Amino acid sequence: MARWGMVIDLDRCTGCQACVVACKAENNVPVVAPSQAQAGRSMHWMTVIPEVEGEFPRVRTRFIPRPCQQCDSPPCVKVCPVQAMTKSPEGIVSHVFARCIGCRFCVQACPYGVTYFNWQAPTWPADLREALNPDFAIRPTGVVEMCDFCHHHLQHAREAARAEGREVRGEGEYTPACIQACPARALIFGDLDDPTTEASHLARGPRAYRMLEELGTSPKVFYLKEG
Amino acid sequence: MKLSRRGFLGWSGTLVAAAAGCQGIRAIGDLQAATYEAEVPPQGIEGWVASVCQQCPGGCGIQVRTITGVQDGVKRAVKIQGNPYHPISRGSVCPKGVAGLQALYDPDRFRGPMKRAGARGQGQWQPISWEEAVATVVQRLRDLRAKGEAHTLLLMAGQVRGLMQSLLLRFLEAYGSPNYLSTASGCEASRQTLFLTQGIAEPIAYDLENSAYILSFGAGLLEAGWSPVRQARAYSHLRQGTPGRRGRLVQVEPRFSVTAAKADEWIPLRPGTDGALALAMAHVIVSEGLYEKEFVEAWTFGFDDWQDAAGTSHLGFRSLVMNDYRPEAVSALTGVPIQTIVRVAREFAATRPAVALAERGAGFHTNGLYNRLAIHALNALVGSIEVPGGTVIQRRPPLTPLPPVTRDAAALRGLAAPRIDGAGTVKSPLASSVVSALPEALRTGSPYRPKALFLYYANPVYSVSEFVRHPELLDAIPFIVSFSPFPDESSRHADLILPDHTSLERWQDDPIEATWGPAVLGLRQPVLEPRHQTRHTGDVLIQIAQGLSGTVAAAFPWKEFSEALKEGVRGVAGAQGGLIMTTPFEEARQRRQADAGFWLPTYKTFDEFWSQVAERGGWWDPAYSFGNRERAFRTPSGKFEFFFQTLRQRLEALTRRGAASGVGLDGLLDALGIQARGDRVFLPHHEPPRFVGEEKEYPLHLIMSKPMSLAGTRTANQPWLGEIPNVRTSRPWEIAVEINPESAHKLGIRDGDEVWLESPGGRLRLRARLYQGIAPEVVHVPFGSGHAAGGRFAEAWGANPNRLIGGEADRLTGTPALFATRVRITRA
Ligand code: SF4
Ligand code: SF4
Questions:
Q1: Does the predicted model carry a pTM greater than 0.90?
Q2: Phi, psi of B50 (to 5 degrees)
Q3: Domain limits, chain B
C-alpha cells in the first residue's frame, strides 16, 4: 500500500503563495474578513511562513510552505474524543466534519498549528459561491478543518485506476492542488515507500529534514534545505 | 437530551467539557454525525477548457474546469490550473492565476451598458441598451470628426497586445487621432534601452533558465514581474534544475525584497545609483581584462576612443569607465563596499553565461534610462547578447497582417496634429506615449483640449499620481467612455460604461511579448457564456467604426472580433513552422524531425489547425537560433553601440528643428535635466538623480514594489488575494509601510503603529511595520491596493502609494520616476 508524502524544496520555493490560493480554492476554505483576520482567525490549510533573521544589512529570510505535516504518529488523532480526526490505512490524516464537536483539542495538540476552527459560518457573496468546488462540502460554524493532502484527488485517481484494474501509480496520478499549482516545482508528491518516485528519492537525500522531528510525530512532509 | 450544536459549543468551551468525560462527548458526537447535513455545491458534468490567464501580462496558459449542473443546467467555472502544454506556464500558475475565478465571479462587476446618472465621480448609473450606447458613441465621434477635431479623441490603454491592440491603433488611424496613450509605463524605458544599444525598439527579453549567474538591479524577478510564473520556473531551474550545478543570483536594491531574500547575495545601495555601480563593475572588468574580447572587438561600437568622418575624436566606453568610475569613488556614492564591487564584478565576468537585469528598480529614477543602459553595457562586456543564458529578442508569431487603412481627409488632418502629451518632442524625445503629461495638458488646454476619452484596461485615477490627487481633472474631457468590466476610479468619471466580457468569457489571441526568445501564441476562448449583458470590446469597436461609415467602417470589415481573429491566425497556420502546443516529450520528437528537414504538421486544413489550437491552448515555435548577430544589431553601426549614435541623431535633429527658437543642444539637455555634456551624453553614465522634496523636510526615500498577489490595479477585489498581500509578513488584508527599526526608533514609532506618510504631494495613513530588510533612509509601500472604487473588497483595505508620488520623470523616455519621491513619517 502506498504511503503518500510530500517533499518541499526550500531552495526552489519563491514564496509566491500559488499553493496557498490553490488550496483555498480546491477545498472551499472560507475567506475571513479583515476584522476576524486581525484576531488571528484567517484560515489557510496551506500557508507560507516567512522566517526573518539578522539585522540590516545582513538579513536572511526563508519562506516555508506549511501544509498539514501528515504525521505517521498524529497527536490530533490521539486527542480527538469523537474520532473525527482519523488516519487512513494509507496514512492520510483527515478530518470528518460531521463528527466534529468543535472541542478544539486537536488545535491544541498539533505542534504545527495546521488545524483551523470555523468561528463563523462561511459566507460568500452570491456570485463568488458559483466558483465553489463541487467535490467538497462546505463546513458549518463550530467545526475544525485542515489539509488532508486533497484526499478527494486520491479517490478520483483510485476510481480511474480501478476502471483499468490496477492500483494508483506512485506519482503523477494523485496530486494535491498546491502541488499542481506551484510554478517553481518546489512541491513534489508521491509514494514514499516506492523507491522509484522522485519524492521518495528526495526524502532520503542529504538536504532532507522534517519539522520538529524530535517530537516523534514522524511527519510525511519532508523539507529540503537551501543550497 | 437534545443539544443544539451552538449550545454544545458554548458549553464545551470551558473545562467542563473535559470533566464531562469522554463517554458523554462521544455520544453527542455520534448524534451530530447522524443529524448533520453538509452543504455541497451543485454537482454536474465536468469539462475542461484551455485559455490564457489575464490577471497580469504574464500570458500563462490555463485550463479551466467547468461543471454543468445536473439540476439547474448552469455551467460554472470551478477551478483554474496551469496548462501543461503551454510553454510559459507548463501546468503551473501563480496565486493570481488561481484567483482568476474571482475576476469572473466578481460580485461587483458591471452587468451591462450604462450611462451616467449622477455627477461625474459619483458612480451612479442608469442601464441603457447596447444599441443606444453604441449610437451615442457614434454620434459624438461623428460630430467631432465633422468639426475637424478627430485628433481630440484620446485612447488610453493598459496592458494589451495582439489583435486587440492592433484594432485600437487601427481605429485611431482610420478615425484620425495620434493619441494612443499607454499606462504600461515600465516598458518604454526597456524598449529604448534595446533601441539605443541594438537598434531594436522592443523591451529586452532574457533567457533566464539557461543562465548561470543573474545580476539583478532591482528587478522584481520573484514578485509580480513581467511574467511571474515563467520567472519562478526559471529561478527554480537555476537553483536545482541541473544536477551538480546551482546558479547564482545577486540582487542589488535598497530593500530586502522577495527576490533579495531568495538571492545568494543582497547588495543594498543608495536609491538611484545603480548605473554608477554597474559602471564601476565595468571598470573592474575592463581594467582586469576580464571582458569577452572577441565579442567586444567584432560586435561593439564605441568601446575604444574613436574618430568620426570629420576627424573629431570621441570618448570610448573604456576610457569613460577607467577615468570616471573607479570603485573607490563609486563606493562612496552608492554606499556599496569596494570589495563587494570588485568581487561581484569578477564573479559576473568569470561565470558564463551571466546576465544583468535592469527591470523596475534601477529604471524608476530620473536617470532610469542611463541606469538601464549602463547595466545592459555589462551584458555586452561579457558577450551575453543573443546567446543562451543572456539577453534575447522576443520573436512574434506570424499572424496575417491586417490590410492597410485608407485615411480620408479628416483622418489625415487629425493624424497630422501633435500628440497631446508631447511624446517624441523636445519634452520627451524618446517617448512614444507619456500618460503623466496628460494632467498638465488638461490644466492648460495646450496643445489643445481633448474632447473624448476611451478607457481600455486603463485606470489613471488610480495609477497616475496627479490624477489620484485630482481626479476632477478628467472632467475637463466632455465625453468619457469606459470599457472596463469592473468598477474602478476612472470609470466613475465616465459618461458611458460599455463593459467588456471578462477574460474567461471571450475570444482573444495572446502573443507573448518581451519574455523570452521563442514566438508563442496563446488563445483565450470563452469558458462559459457571458454571465451578464457585457460585450467584447473588439465587437463594440467594430460596431462603432461601422456606425461611422466611410473609410472608418471600411477599415473594420469584419462581422465580429472572432472573425478578424481567425483571419489573423490563418497566417500562423500557413507559416510552415512551429507546432501546436504539446508535451515537452512530443515537442522534442517534432523538433528532431524538423532538424532533420521534415516539418510534419499535425494538421492539414485550417479548420484542423484551429480546433487543435483551441483544444491545446495555442501554438508556438520553440526554435530560436542564438548567435544571429546580424538580426540582433540594427544600429547605424550594425553592432552593439556603447556610443549611442541614434540618440545623438535624435537630439541633434530636435535641436536643429528648435534652432530657430534659439534652443541649442545644451539648452535641450538642461530642459531634460541631463547634466552630462559632450560625448558622455551618448555613453552609459551616471546622471545624478533628482528627487521630489527637500531632504531636510522629507528625510526618507519612498520605494514601492508589486507584490505577487497584486498586479497593477485589478486584483484587489479578489478576496483570495486580499488575504495574502505580502508573503514577508503573512498578514491578511494588510498593506503597511516598512521602515528600518533604527529609523523607527528615532521617530518613536513602534511596530504596528498607525502613521502618516507624507510627501510634498500628499499624505497616506497606514500601519508601520519594522523591518530589518530595508535601508535606514528608505521606506517601502506595495502597489495595488487602497482603491477608492473597485468593489466591496477593494474599497475596504490597503493604501495607494501613487497618491504620494511627485511629478518627476525620466524626461528622455517620459517614464514616471516612481522611486524619486522623498517622504516623512509621523505617528498618527
Ligand atoms: S507555490 Fe511553490 S513556490 Fe509558490 S509559495 Fe508555494 S511552494 Fe513556494
Ligand atoms: S503569472 Fe500572470 S498570467 Fe501567469 S498565472 Fe499569474 S497572473 Fe496569470
A1: yes
A2: -85, 140
A3: 5-35, 114-187+399-621, 205-392, 645-682, 700-827
